[in-house]
Amino acid sequence: MKDKKKLWAAIGIVVLTFIILIGGTYLKHKQGEREMIAQAEKVAKDYIKKEKKVDIVVTNYEITPMGGIHLFGYVKGDKKRKFNIQVMKNGSRYEVGLYGIDN
Length: 103
Fold this sequence. Notes:
Elements: H1 2-52, E1 56-63, E2 69-75, E3 78-90, E4 93-101
Antiparallel strand pairs: 1-2, 2-3, 3-4
């Protein structure tokens, strides 16, 4: 009887350890993704402000398989003017690749 309890305790510890490791890895990945999106958003906002003289509001994003970031949203003050912008990481820098804004 004691051997069964020890076996179940050992299995429980292994499963719990596995869950904690997976959870920690996932949280670390999500934190890195949030930081990457925040940096890409800043680069995109600065670029559009300089090139088009408008402020933008980012509402959504996609991370492409090649590591690019597509940001979507609208021009501040005019939700009908949608935009999308592609930001790529080049070494430690983020650069705008392509963008489009509705007229």
